[in-house]
Amino acid sequence: MTADADAAEAGAPEEGAGRSKKKLLIFGGAGLVLLAAVGGGAYYFLMGGGESVAPDGTAPDAAVEQRPAVFFDLPEMTVNLSSEGRATYLRVRISLEVSDREMVQKIEPYLPRILDAFQVYLRELRPADLEGSSGLFRLKEELLRRINTAVYPARVEGVLFKEILVQ
């Protein structure tokens, strides 16, 4: 009986090893398939997923004509910022981007209103509000919102900083 028991014990690990190799191959294969699917999906989304289609069902033109921009320079502004202790000043030169020359003619009569809106907003800023690119981006977005409110129904496309000095 001891010989049969030894043979049974010797055969048992061979069957278990065969099963664990099968499991390893199955899980490894499933992992590779999952990895390939995730990689393919990521490639599809990151690379644009092929040709885009316009909302009307047609393919977009390969070369989109870019219209020339028209810029309107505002006068240089110097304001004192809201700060405790030592006075801090902001000097800024701004240029407005508009669609065409007609828009400049529509905006010019509103120049006092634009400058007033800018002065009131800029005087409430603290020097910390202007730190970093995110601070300047928020400033640009707020000035654009205020100018479009001041010149409505005319529209300004963008606010461009020509010079910013905090002193």
UniProtKB/TrEMBL annotation:
Topological relation to the membrane, as annotated: Single-pass membrane protein
Any Pfam family matching the protein: FliL
Chain segments annotated as transmembrane: 24-46
GO BP terms: bacterial-type flagellum-dependent swarming motility; chemotaxis
InterPro entries the UniProt entry points to: FliL (IPR005503)
A GO CC annotation given for this chain: plasma membrane
Compartments (UniProt record): Cell inner membrane; Cell membrane
Keywords attached to this entry: Cell inner membrane, Cell membrane, Cell projection, Chemotaxis, Cilium, Flagellar rotation, Flagellum, Membrane, Transmembrane, Transmembrane helix
Domain of life: Bacteria
Main location: membrane
Family: Belongs to the FliL family.
Function: Controls the rotational direction of flagella during chemotaxis.
Protein name stated in the entry: Flagellar protein FliL
